């Protein structure tokens, strides 16, 4: 039997039976039966067998499946020792979805796609050997973290580590266009190249002059940002990673850009095909001034990037609109257009209701909390990357006369449930930081010099977390209650402290710090003031009990770290970010990111297969009531959780809002006596609340419509397990 010839398998039907209650009982045992059937009928029957580990590695090397460096960096005795350790950990998948996702998406297969060439242990070994780069102790450490699922590299890293024919290891890219044709052309070329390599691409268009602006003195000649958006969408569609994956991109525009209405309109379902963008994501960068104008119900002015750059001598994105707003309004040399702030706010919310877009980046919040010298002007495809950039200048030969800095980001996630059981929190984090550092050090995106330049200077990584709701439910804590916020605060305090320790240690070992470290708030010590001026430890006995056995940094610990960082620096400009973990959550049997679950039994539509059901991790009669759907939770509770984490995270977080088109009574007090339908007002209030709480970005608005319901265990009010 081969993978393409699978017939008469039982695991799909067994998995589907989870969603069919039997006497008001959720038949979770069917998922375990599906898992066993999948391993027997699919995996065991279709895995290429070898008589020894040596024979397997010889085959993989001879047939060009793995990089020779993987083996040449180590003695084979050590590789066998690593495998012995991994086998002795007795790893097993806990759900059908976990095993299915791993073998469908991550496991190395023969070139003809007929047989599996590795199991989970093999992939863990490849990651450990690859990211440790010959360091045996580190390889064992990384293997220990991944096999116990305390650490999960992001999909590009986990999938491609060690493979001879692979995509890039990094997750996403951020680039920006300046207001000239050379820069626009280079941006489109960069989008093509980066889309081909893999990962999502974020592009800032705020610097481009608006439609109708002059070109070489000819009024009305400029076409604005929408035609550039169309070109970029076509570029992502064309460069689709050999047909394996659709290219993905997001474009960002300032809310004060004169093209903002046309920008938003391009995503509407009824937009003219000449301007409509179907697959391109939209994001809006929002300064504090916008929220102030909304609050006061004022008119607002949209400023021409062309005239702003002429007056200020720098690209539009690099002008502080909140600080300069009144001066710009009063300046006759700056062309401006008047709109009503609340009308624009409603337009944003209308589009979010219809499409889920635009993402919102509270750019002043991001910069106010940024410890790095420079300016954050945009984010990435998932809105969690917040790093400083500098613009490039390109001449008529498409050469860089000034090479700016753009961004590539490589990510990984801690699994909160398993990290809370680690024997050494600090050592675990250090192993993760070193694994991520390998990706940063070996990333070489020469085809886009500004990204290569930025990466070489900044050495950035993004360590995050997943599984929060699962951990809370397992420990009988409701999502959004005080103890859940308290726990989130302490967990990310720890993650921040230990990533700082690891980065400082690497800087000291190498005698190297990130570019402009001396101009950062780390170098002058001011970053650490908040940890020295107040106690960030657990507020309740319940949360203190959860962290029993895990050392919480004291003020003395923070003072010692402050002194060490001021003396020897940090290797990484940025260290943390919360990505919207998808398939890596499934193989970890984890809830996604920091979000509440959507359903106790999640339904996934898989191509060519149909529906697969995934029970929430640790689902039992004891945890059932703690698994409230995100669609039935006040989104202010989600904001409060994320705000607790954001206090310790130097970059951003992918925070999604989950809304029902008909909102259940009692969730939002402002709905009392009003319509129960979701309105733009609801989104306006929540967006303003998130800004007030210090949230840097809102990723996506997911709406559950009245006709999206499904008959099954999630609608069974009295179901038990």
TrEMBL record:
GO cellular component: ribonucleoside-diphosphate reductase complex
One GO-annotated biological process of the protein: deoxyribonucleotide biosynthetic process
UniProt EC number: 1.17.4.1
One term of GO molecular function: ATP binding
Keyword ATP-binding: yes
InterPro entries xrefs: NrdE_NrdA_C (IPR013346), RNR_1b_NrdE (IPR026459), RNR_lg_C (IPR000788), RNR_lsu_N (IPR013509), RNR_N (IPR013554), RNR_R1-su_N (IPR008926), Rrm1 (IPR039718)
Keywords annotated in UniProt: Allosteric enzyme, ATP-binding, Deoxyribonucleotide synthesis, Disulfide bond, Nucleotide-binding, Oxidoreductase
Chemical reaction(s) catalysed: a 2'-deoxyribonucleoside 5'-diphosphate + [thioredoxin]-disulfide + H2O = a ribonucleoside 5'-diphosphate + [thioredoxin]-dithiol
Keyword check for tRNA processing: no
Ribonucleotide reductase large subunit domain boundaries: 558-580
Protein family per UniProt: Belongs to the ribonucleoside diphosphate reductase large chain family.
Function: Provides the precursors necessary for DNA synthesis. Catalyzes the biosynthesis of deoxyribonucleotides from the corresponding ribonucleotides.
Protein name according to UniProt: Ribonucleoside-diphosphate reductase
Organism per entry: Pediococcus argentinicus
